[in-house]
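re: that chain from earlier
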Amino acid sequence: MERTINISENLEELNPWIKRSIELFQTTKYLDDILKVYPFQIATPQRLDRDIRRKILSAHQARNTNTLIELLKNLDKFPYEDPIWYLIKNISGCLENNPEQIQRIANSLYSMTAEETVVRLESAPKLNTQMGPMFNIWLQNKFKLLQMEKFKTSRKGIFILNSSEEEGKSFVNDVLNQNLHKRPDLVAKVNGQYIIGEAKWIGQPGGNQEKQVQEVITFCRNQRGNILRIGIVDGFPWALKKINGNLINDKVAVYVQESEYDVVSALLLKEYLRSLIN
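^ sequence. v structure.
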């Protein structure tokens, strides 16, 4: 993606909080510190029961498709991402009525060795599926939370709303008039100023990561009234250069870095909120 700002020479042209976040990423042990916000667990393999493992290996080696499919149906994981496996596994009639699809899946499985199939089944799970709860737990431990009535009547200090998803959504839409389909990740108040924010961990460029970045930028752009909207983004968007020294021009990074809106690392959130105190 073509940049509109020469970021190598004109870092000062960026939103100051974006600039601060980039500098944090470049000059500190950022990835170590972000563990306080997103405490990723050690990725450990999930071993199959020895008897199940033996049966899968045997069925695969014998090309016994019916037995192999039945064994795999009883597991939480599949050896690869298949677009219709969920339907085959969970929906009545799909397995019995679609022999061509079953053969296609079998051919994909047999293109691997039996041992490779098991290795994939036992591989460590992805670690990025619980980012929202991680951020919320960190928020609760980092800031002072108030229940709804005290939050609304507070006048001095930095406070985070402590509410359920539904109660928070109703407050943001009915009281703050924000027209959102879900409760924002951050509902804060600094003295009399309300701030709402969306938090994202972006681990790499492309795909769904770009969609998430666009959601944050759109969220910030759709300012309504005097409620301040911010993005709380961490990970890849704060990187400037690849390991070979080339400037990163991926959309995920450029969208965030050239945003005119306040987008900030979670590690700077407390400082950001303090800056709003008059």
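Strands lie at 145-146, 158-161, 186-190, 193-202, 228-235, 263-264.
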